[in-house]
Amino acid sequence: MDTRYFNDRTGMSTQGSHAHMIRARLRISLYTVLLVLLAGCAAVPPSRVSSDSPPYAPVTTTPARERAATPVLQQLADEAEALKPLAKSALGQRFLDAARALPVIGTRTVYLNEITREYFSPDEKSALPAAAQAKLAEVKQDEYRYYYTKYGSPLAYLRPLELAATHGVSDVAGKVIMDFGYGGIGHLRILASLGAHVTGIDPDSYLDALYSSKRDQGAVPPAAGRRGQPGTVALVHGYWPKEPKIIERVGQGYDLILSKNTLKKGYIKPDRKIDKRQQITLGVTDDAFLKAIHNALNPGGKMIIYNLYPKPPDAKGAYNPQADARSPFSREQYEKAGLEVIAINIEDHAAARAMGRLLKWDRNDKGEVTSNLDDTIYAMYTIVGRRSK
Q1: Residue 76, phi-psi category: left (phi > 0), alpha (psi -120 to 50), beta (remainder)
Q2: How far apart are CA 373 and CA 389, in angstroms?
Q3: How far apart are CA 177 and CA 251, in angstroms?
Q4: 238's torsion region: left (phi>0), alpha (psi -120 to 50) or beta?
Q5: How far is CA 1 from CA 21, 146, 247, 364, in A?
Q6: Which is nearest to 153 in space by CA: 175, 177, 183?
Q7: How far is CA 341 from CA 255, 298, 349, in A?
Q8: Helix 186-193 and helix 90-98, axial crossing angle in degrees, nearest 10
Q9: CA Rg value for the chain
Q10: CA distance 75 to 53
C-alpha cells in the first residue's frame, strides 16, 4: 500500500505513518490579525467581513494544470480538478478552486530526537543546552511534506465541507472555524483564502516544528475572484481544553468545528485493552470536553466529526482501534452538554470511496491499482450543534 494515502488521516491501516502519529499524540494524552506580523496571536479575530458587494465575483482562469509552479502544487491542482464532480455545493466548489492559489514553499528544516520522537524547530533547537542539541538529527522537509504531512491530501477535507454545506454552512467568508487535530496546514490556508478565520489545534510536535515560520500564520491573501477582508490562520499546539493557556489562545465564538480522524471511539474508549501507544485520552472528563465544545461554538454553530477507517475485523479478528470510528460520546452525553444531535454514527462509505478513487488511494506511485476501496475504506460521521436559543 502507498502509505502517502493510506494512513491514519485517510483512515487506513499503515505501519510507518500511524506509528509516527501515535508516538506524537499519545505522549500527551491527545489532541489533539492584522497581517503576518500578528501570526500566532489571537485565534479568534475581533471582527467579521462586512461588505455591500458580493464576496465572490465570476472569474475566468486558465486550467490549473497550466499554472502550477511546482510538481507538488501541480499534484494539488490535478487533485482539485479530479474532485470537482464530488463538489455538489458552492462551498465545495470554492474550496477546490482555491487550492490553485496555494503558495510555493521552500524546504524546511526540523530536528528530531530519535529516542523521544519529539521534533524541534530551528529556534527551539537553539534554545536547548548543547548536550541536548547534540542528540537531535536534522530532517529536511520539502514542499510535499509541508502540504501532505504524514496524512495525505488536504483536499480530503472536501467531504466534511460538503456535509457542512448541507447543514447550513453555505459560505465560510467571515466565519470562525476550528479544526481539532488539524494534521496539516493546506486545507486551513485554503479556507482562509476564502475569508475564514481558521484555528488549527494539534499537540503533535512535528507540526509545531514544521510550521514554525511566522509566514505560516496570520492573514492569507484572498483566492481569485474573492472580495472582502482576508481570512487568517492561527495554529495552537497543545492540549485543548486541558491547559488554561491553550484555552485562552483558542477562545470561543466558532461557527464551525471540524475534527477528521481524531475523535474515534477506538482511540478514546476502546472496547478492548489496546497498546498504550494507541490509547488516546483527552485529559479531561467527557462532560468537560463536551462543555468546552458547547462553549466554543456560537449559537447555531456546528461540529462535524468525520472518520475514515479500514475494514472492521470480523468476530474472530484482532481488535483494531483505527477501525472503530464511532463517536466516542453518546447521544445522551451530547444532549447533557446542551448540544443538539443532528446525526450520529452515519455511514458514508460510498462518498469516501468515490473521493479515494479520485485521489488515487487505490494506486501506487506507478499508477497501478493495488487495492479495492470497496473492501478497504469506510467512513462515518457525526454532526452536533449548539442550539440557536
Answers
A1: alpha
A2: 43
A3: 11
A4: left
A5: 18, 22, 39, 7
A6: 183
A7: 16, 16, 21
A8: 110
A9: 20
A10: 34
Distance CA 38, CA 48 (A): 17
Q: Tens-digit pLDDT profile for the chain (389 aa)? A: 222 233 544 444 443 333 333 333 333 333 333 333 333 333 333 333 333 334 544 333 344 445 568 999 999 999 999 999 999 999 999 999 999 989 999 999 999 999 999 999 999 999 999 999 999 999 999 999 999 999 999 999 999 999 999 999 999 999 999 999 999 999 999 999 999 999 999 999 999 999 999 999 999 999 988 888 899 999 999 999 999 999 999 999 999 999 999 999 999 999 988 888 788 789 999 999 999 999 999 999 999 999 999 999 887 888 999 999 999 999 999 999 999 999 999 999 999 999 999 999 999 989 999 999 999 999 999 999 999 87
363 - beta bridge partners? Answer: 369
| pTM (global) more than 0.90 | no
DSSP 299-359: EEEEEEEEEEE-PPP-TTSPP-GGG--S-SS-HHHHHHTTEEEEEEEEE-HHHHHHHHHHT
Decide: 109 and 122 in contact? Cβ < 8 Å. Answer: yes
176 three-class SS:
strand
- Rounded to whole angstroms, the Cα distance separating 317 from 356 reads 25
Query: Can you tell me whether residue 212 is helix, strand or coil?
Result: coil
Grid cell locating 27: 505522549
Buried b (16+ CB within 10 A) or exposed e, 338-353: ebebbebeeebeebbb
The three cell numbers of residue 143 are 514542499
